[in-house]
Amino acid sequence: MPIRLEPTPTLADRLRTASRPQFGIWSCSGSALVAEICAGAGLDIVLIDGEHSPVGLESILAQLQAVAAYPVTPLVRAPIGDTVIVKQLLDLGAQNLLIPMVNSAEQAAEMVAAVRYPPAGVRGVGSALARSARWSRIDDYLSRADGLVSLYVQIETVDGLANVDEIAAVDGVDGLLVGPADLAASMGLLGQQTHPEVVAAVETAIAAGTAAGKPVGVNAFDPVAADRYLAAGARWVLVGADVALLARASEALADRFIGGGSDVAPASY
Questions:
Q1: Concatenated DSSP letters for 172-207?
Q2: SS3 for 162?
Q3: What is the pLDDT of residue 2?
Q4: ∠89-94-96 over CA atoms, to 5°?
């Protein structure tokens, strides 16, 4: 007899029941081995990046398989808010999706439809062939699927910020993630994530999501910035990235043993 399986809790489940904010790390290297190392670090979330990383579906699948053995929540960022790509990511077993560059409530509603089966949405039905349902080893997957997926959208432009109240109010959006780097660029402040206007914009988005009852996350590799956004009400914070940690640590080794170090400024995101 085949093994009957139960899906793991979604990020929405964990944020709803957590007694403290959740902390995560980006997996940007494309390496399943590195993703597994990050999964065992003791953080709450591993965010597998499909937008700014050298990955395809096979790499994302391998990373999901690598982190599955650990008590960490995987979140997958799609490269773009495209219905077909969303369908593929869901079918390969991504329960938690992050959609970049969402600028309107209409875009957010389209993504809600993309993660739901008809009649509530437009997700194509292929679960019997897919890891999402463990090839029909999760009982009643089709009728339960809407509750087994969580959806997050990124606020990272001035348009998204202007529409953040409406975006947060969309039924089926489980939460927001604010991207200070792109938001700063959109505001004409490229590379100035800690500029007072950018910080104020991030806090505006946090307040809007909180008012709508949606947990808001933020990228904050600087601990001082992370603490400020936590004080403002952020419920989840991404505090580092695999490639950035490797870059800075290898530079520190060079500086310690060779001297002179690197003249590359520490990265912020």
A1: T--EEEE-HHHHHHHTT-TT-TTSHHHHHHHHHHHH
A2: helix
A3: 78
A4: 115
- What's the token pair of residue 166? 């409406």
Does 52 qualify as catalytic in the annotation? yes
Q: Is 224 exposed, middle or buried (0-12, 13-18, 19+ CB in 10 A)?
A: exposed
Tokens (6 digits) for 200: 């104020």
pTM score of the predicted model: 0.94
Instruction: Give the domain 11-20+81-220+231-257 fold.
Output: TIM Barrel (3.20.20)
**The two three-digit tokens of residue 183, written as one number:** 């938001």
Exactly one of 52, 131, 195, 248 is catalytic; which is it? 52
Which helix (H) or strand (E) is 19 found in, with range? none
Res. 264 pLDDT band, cuts 50 70 90: low
**Smallest Cα–Cα separation from 105: which of 178, 173, 203, 207?**
173
Contact 183/156 with Cβ under 8 angstroms?
yes
Q: Could you state, in order of their start, the residue ranges of all structural domains in the chain?
A: 11-20+81-220+231-257
**Residue 218 β-bridge partners:** 178, 237
Q: What is the distance between the alpha carbons of residues 222 and 194, in angstroms, rounded to a whole number? A: 9
Helix then strand count (H, E) for the chain reads 12, 8
pLDDT at residue number 3: 82
The CA distance from 210 to 204, in Å, is 10
Task: Report the alpha-carbon distance of residue 186 to residue 167 in Å, rounded.
Answer: 18
Alpha-carbon distance of 231 to 224, in angstroms, equals: 11
Identify the bridge partners of residue 48 per DSSP, sorted by sequence position.
Answer: 27, 76
- Cα(109)–Cα(167) distance, rounded to whole angstroms? 8
Q: Residue 237: phi, psi to the nearest 5? A: -135, 130
